[in-house]
Amino acid sequence: MNTIGTGPPWSACPGSGARAGLRVSGSDGALLAAIVDGSGDAIVVLTKDGVITSWNPAAEKLYGFTAQEAQGQSIAIVNGPGEEDYLRLATSASCGDTSTFEAEYIRRDGSRVELAVTLGPREM
């Protein structure tokens, strides 16, 4: 069973185990995967160290990398200036905080795109 929306197990954040998340199992997991894959928004799932573990079709279209090319890579493949800020916010998200900000990202072809980004917690 996967839990969505709670602090990750590696978290040393106060109260990280106290949040109740959305529990997903069986066919609900397949439904969630279909929603993510069908989303028009780029959805990228990262480890606490900024390594890409999941990359939906909208992310492929936006950034120009296939999921197979992106998975296992650092988010630095698309980060422009401010990568350190991004990783700081990602760490904050691992503690249960949600952050929204605007940042410049780099597509595979080298062009830049300004995006609104929301980082939130997830549990592995």
Secondary structural class? alpha+beta
CATH architecture: 2-Layer Sandwich
Mean pLDDT, all residues: 73
H/E series: EEHEEHHHEE
Helix content: 25-40%
Shape annotation: globular
Q: Specify the biggest β-sheet.
A: 2 strands, antiparallel
**Assembly state of the chains shown:** single chain
Number of helices: 4
CATH topology: Beta-Lactamase
Number of domains: 1
Low-confidence spans: pLDDT under 50, at least 5 residues? Answer: 1-22
Strand order of the largest sheet: 1-2
| Count of beta strands | 6
Instruction: Report the top-level CATH class.
Output: Alpha Beta
**CATH superfamily, please?**
PAS domain
Query: Between the first and last Cα atoms, what is the distance in angstroms?
Result: 10 Å
Share of β-strand residues: 15-25%
* CA gyration radius, whole angstroms: 15 Å
In brief, what are we looking at here?
This protein has 124 residues and is of the alpha+beta class.
Structure description:
The chain is of the alpha+beta class and 124 residues long. The protein has a single domain (2-119), classed as Beta-Lactamase (2-Layer Sandwich). 29% of the residues lie in helices and 23% in strands. The chain contains 4 helices and 6 strands. The chain has helices at residues 26-38, 57-63, 67-70, 83-94; strands at 2-4, 22-24, 44-46, 52-55, 99-106, 112-119. A hairpin with a 5-residue loop joins strand 5 (99-106) and strand 6 (112-119). The longest helix is centred in the first third of the chain and has 13 residues, at 26-38. The chain is globular. The protein starts with a strand and ends in a 5-residue tail after the last strand.
